[in-house]
Every structure is written in structure tokens, then in C-alpha cells.
Predict the 3D structure of the following.
Amino acid sequence: MKKAAIECGVAVGIVVLSGVGLVEAWGYRGGSGLMPRAVMAGTMGLAAIWAIQSVRVLRAPRAVVAQDETLSAPQVAGSASDLAASLAAEPEGDPAAKPIYIPPEQRRAGLVVAAGGLFLLIGMSILGFFTTAAIAVPAMAWGLGYRRPLGLLLGTACFIVLLLLVFRALLALPLPPEAIFTLFGG
Amino acid sequence: MATIFQHMLDALPLLFTWQAILAMMGGTAIGIGVGALPGLSATMGIAVLVPLTFTMQPVTALGMIAGIYNGAMYGGSIPAILLRIPGTPAGIATVFDGYPMAQKGQAKLALRISLVSSSIGSAASAVALLMLAPPLSLIALKFSPANYFWLALFGLMTIAVLLSNNPVKGLLSACLGLAVGMVGIDMMTGVERFAFDELGLLSGVNIIVMLTGLYAIPPAIDLALNPPKPEAEMQELSGETVGFRWSGLIPVWAKAAVIGVVTGIIPALGGNIAALFAWNEQRRGDPDKDKYGKGAPEGIAAPECANNADTAATLIPALTLGIPGSSVAAIILGALLVHGLVPGPQLFRDKADITYGFMLSMLVTSGMMLIMGAVGARIFVNVLKMPTQLLAGMILTLAMIGVYAIHNSMFEVWLMIGFGLVGYAMEKLDIPTAPAVLAMILGPIAEENLRRALLISGDSFLALVAGPISILLIVLILGSTGVPLLRKYLARQKRRQALAQRGV
């Protein structure tokens, strides 16, 4: 699937959402409605233009594929002049014309992050922040391919100690009780 | 000038408490560490750590943020020199001569040049902030509500148009920020806007929730999905620094500092542009051009000095006019708001001690960076050995605990994750996130001043375009948005012509 197809879908979604927002803003009385109405109408217009732009990209007969989508962290290779030239160069073609390809390892990593994030969100209210972090951090690292048990143990332990020092000792923030301590009558 | 020095003297006792010194040292160390880790940036570091500063005194908290900001700019050069991979985008130009120097067995000297240049750049920038911001704020104090409305619109439009290849996307991002900024009860009329009877939204969306979501979650996801893979071998921290003629770098620092400060003041440019520009200018002005890209010390000094000279200078329009010119300046404005400091000229009048304390902390942390970078060089280099797989979970955890700590609300944590996912999608769709944050800050300012101007003029929209300052700002808006749009249009036409000639 081309990126422009996704962009078109998102743009149409924004048109609909801002339309709903505009209807909602129409009900605000006096000066309260001035800015919301202007912003929602503006958003609708802009999203409609974006949708048209995406459709035009999709209809274009041939698109030039530009850079590698999988690399988004700042990375460099080659000589200084190559790098300077690539930084100065205009991107070839419209990036929206690029087809989307997600490598299998990225899909797996995406699942690990989603599962880990969800566990953190739910676990924090049930198990407590520190217990959840002590489970989620090494589990996510393992899932992402880090296989050194000592590194996992040490890294997690240092992180949890740091969290306890900062949030409990230094800032004394009122965080939910840790289920493990409640279990043992703490 | 005497008043400025008096304010500085008044701020010194606040800055030299043991808590503030500890916070600045901690912030600097964290900043260097964050900058050294490829994939993380000063913006992310500050976004994750701002919630931790809630319970601190304003100057202590802002000192910590100043340390992170300065430290991260230098930290970015460590992997640039040793691994040929910049820790932050601002470290890109350092790779050109940094890595070749390390390959020649001069890694220690390269890092030392980077450290000294960064500290000098930061100090020059802090001095520029201290000298330029107060007089500019005096001018801004003369602005009427209508002027303020146009000023806020100018800041917003400029960033939205300049930060994206497609201005429509930049403006859409700004609209998102404006919409989020309107959520909650309207303070002027009591009307509930876009809250949809949700209790957690009635008091509005906290800026930190949005900032943390947009700037902490996408890098965490990116680190997991695209772990940075160094394409070169890590160089040993070898070589000696004695015998190097430091005085030869003085003209390089002078030129690079000016480039950095000027670039910093101009909205929508950043440390990476300043560094590339300074490296290019240094090479262009040197008779021996061939040495650049092969390990020239000047090729490290120029970009490192420039990207650090950009830091405090970025805050000049942010602190005086309330217009942040970059995402990191927007986050710092968010941090100021958290501590009850409303950005704008009144900051220098109503909260002078804290404002000057913050500006001075930018200067103090540049000195701290020099000492800590020299003493702890080996420790900071070891940060590079940290497994990136552990970082994603750690950043997510820190962001969640930090946001929860604002109001002890899980609703805000979910909201932050929502913003994070939106931010990640925006990045993938090439929609800049900075206009959204700027709009969230500038939107309420623009709206308040628009309504105030209309109230004063008896709902006459003509009053908005009256007066020379308003007219000048309207011209600036048209110029700053129209010229790039025109340039993009012309470039597209040129590309189409070229493609047609090639028969594509």
C-alpha cells in the first residue's frame, strides 16, 4: 500500500472529525465560539486539501521512490561530502508516493512495544508502578532481542533503584501502593 | 544595563542554593547521557523529566532543564566522534571531522575540542540571552492586545509553514494544538468547550501531558522498532590532549558563536542547521579546504560551538515574546507554565528573579558541562555501551510515572499515551509535531488577546488591523508564510520541468 493512500484515509477522517467539531462549536455562545469555529473550519479546509493532494499523488502515473522508510533514527554513513550532499539535496519525488513496507522484525518489535505498553498501563493501577516496571522493562528488552540475563538484571535493578530514589525518597510523590507490599501486610 | 545587572545579582542567591547546584549538575549529567544515546534528544530528555520538577523550586527546576539542554547538545558529539553516528541531529556536522580524528588515534583530543567548543558556545549563547532578552521585553511590553494576537499568529504560522515540506501538514498540526488548547471551561464565559462532559477534560489538557506524549513516546517506539545500528566500529578513547594549540581555535569559536546565536534567534532553524552552517562557513573561509572531512580540529570546533550557541539564543523570542522558535523552546515554555510563569515580556517585570535565575543557569551549566565532561569522559563514553533494547521500556515507564505524578490521574496517563500514538503517526506521515505544541501554548494567548481587542473596540474587526505594529506583523506573517510557499511552488515547477525533460 502506498503512503498516500493512508494519508488520504487520515485526511478524510480529519474532515469528518473537524466537521463534528464544527457542529459542536456552533453551539458555543458569544465569544466562546469564535475561535473554535474558525479552527474547526480551518482544519476541515486543510484536511480536504491534504486529501486532494494525496489523491493526486495516487493518480500520478509514476513515482520516484526516495529514501529508506525503515531508518528514522539519525544515522550516517559514507564520507563527509556524501553526507553533506545528501543533507543539502531536495528529496527525490513525493515521499507520499512511497509504498509502505514493514519488515517482519519491526512488526514483532511493534507487538512487543504494544504489549509492554499495555501491561505498563494496566499493571500500574493493579500491581503498582515499581513492580510493573520491574517486570515490563526486562520483558520488553528480552522481547526486543536482548539476551544477556546479567545485563537485564543489572539494568533493571539500577533503573528501579533510581526510580525509588527519585520518586519515593527525593520527590516523595504519592504513588499508588505496591500490591506486593500490601500482600505481605506492608 | 544597570537594572539588568541588579536583577542578575538578585537572582544569584536563588541559583546558588545546594538544591539548585545539585539539580544543575544532575541535569547536565543526564543531558550529556541522553545526548550520547543515539535516537534520544534534548527535547525528549526534557519532556520526560519535566514532570519530575513539579515539586522543586522554580529556579532549581529550570536550572535542571538548562543543564539537560546544554548537556545534550555536547553529548550528541560523543557517538558522532567515536561511532560515526550522531547522538542528536545537532551532532551531524561533528561526524565529518570527529570520526576521522578518532580513526587517526586522536579520539581524546576530538572529544576535548568538542567539549571546550560546546562550553564556549553555550556560554556565548547565555550571555546573548542575558543581554538581548531584557531590552526586547521592554519593547514587547508596549504591545496592545491586537498586536499580541498578530504576534502569536506570526509565531504559529512561521513555524507551521517552515517546519514542514508540505505547509498544509504544518498548519494541520497547528490546528490540532489549537483544538487541544481550547478543551475545557472557557475562563472568560464559563462555557464548556470540547470536553464532552468528561470530568478529566473540564480543567483542560495539561501541556505536559501533551508534551510528554508527543516527545517521549515516539522516540521510545522508534528505539524499539529501529534500534540505531552503528555502521562503524567504536573507536578507542585514545591519544593525548597535551601540546594542542588551543589559541588557533579562537577565531573559529568567535565565528561559530555568532552563527549559532543568530540561527537560534530565527524561528524554525535549529542546532543542526547552525552546526552544518558553521562547518560549511569554516571550510569555505579556510585556505586549506582539503583538510576538512579528514579530521581537522576546526571541523569539530565550529559545529560544536555553533550548536551550543543556538541553545539559549532560541529562548530569546520564547521568553520575551512568548514565541518559541523550536520544539525544545516550546517544551521549556511548557516547563515555565508548569511553574506558574507565563511566557512573555511581563516575565521580566513580574518574576524577574526567577527569569534571570533561569538565564544565569544557562551560563552556569555551560561551565559545569566543561568540568563534568572532562572529569567524567570515560563514564559518558560507556553510556554508548548501554543496550538500546532496555531504553524503550525505561522511557515508557518514566513518562507514565511522570505524567501520573502531575495530578495522580490515570486518565492523564492514558491521554498521554494517546498523544504519543498520534505523535508517532504524525512523524510517520511527515507531519511536524512542533506546531501542535506551539499552537497549544500560543492558541490561548492569541484567543485571549483577540477577544480582548474586540471587547475594547466594541466588536469591530477593523481595530485588529489598526496601528503600525499590527500592520508590520501582518506583513511579516504574509512574508514569512508567502515566500516559502512561493519558493516551494517554484521548486516543484522546476522539478516537474526536469522530469518532463527526462521523459518521466
